[in-house]
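Q: What would this chain look like folded?
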Amino acid sequence: MNCQQFENGSMSFRAFYLSGKLPEDVVQRFAKHAMPPIDTLGSNEIHGWVSSRHMLDRIITPDNIYYAGYLRLTLAKAEKKIPAALLRSECRMAELAHLSASGNQFLYRNDRIEIRKAITDRLLPTMPATLSGIPILINRNILYAGAISEKQMDVLTLNFMETTGVRLIPMTAQSISLLRNNESTEDIAPSSFSPYVEDALTSSSIGQDFLTWLLFYSETSGGIFKFDGSEYAFMLEAPLTFFMEGNGSHLVILRNGCPLVSGEAKEALRVGKKLTCARITMAQGSNTWTLAFSSEFVFRGLKIVKNKEDLDPVSQFQERMLALDTFMNAFLFLYDIFLAERLHPIWPEVRLAIHNWVDTRVTKG
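A: My prediction, written as structure tokens:
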């Protein structure tokens, strides 16, 4: 993971709420939990915090981790790994030598285990360090992190809590609704988006409901909405991933051609499948954002149109962060619009409109 992904290029991240205010001695706490020197690396991995300048920058000071008012760090890990192809070849060579010396035609399982362990113990100390990390950026009470997988999320939340004493609350369909609107989505009954599928047979994922609703809303309203005094437009694009457990194909991925108006997309909706991932483009004035969004609120490859003005690095970063905040605020406002329909008495009327949309969508090809 690029520790400078928030400074340039596209951004892939999950967002977290902070459960409380960071302590006043937060810099000293991060410094206390800095990654050990790389020359201390042995057979076991080492991990800890480094600055976002590079993966070996263990010096954690306010000047190193604050940039334009934003706190930026990387939770780094260093380990030694034996390339899989090398390990397989060394093991096979040793196994053949063992067979030749013993005169046997096969190896017992314990022999294989012992050979692999001996080769690992011999090769591992000679391997160079492999570095990886989870970059984070904190803006007020929101933390953005390059922690895409569940394992990365667990590692980050555990280390952040141990370092700061502040709990990270992942932005999910449930937590966003609770913290923004004080409404729970946990006990909401599943609702079919197809007139041909019973509610009980469809997904109960509010995230999937939201993403599928975005497709409905974009096609029936032109994808236009107003937020904070400005007009925004959005649309969904391929690849589209539809999912539903049950008989037949659970997962349908549409990539090439014109998936949005394809018969396959219409059929996926008709049999009760809902979107789990899609590309989204959002625009406001001269600002444009594109990304792949999943129903688990994972943001992948977010691209922000670069400002053409000749700005110094700090100003460029500030504009980039402003664009990120603008996108997130507008996108979460869209989620608010959805929740205002999904969690309230108006939903049966909206669902009827969705059923009609699914049944009458125009297809090509």
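The chain has a mean pLDDT of 92.
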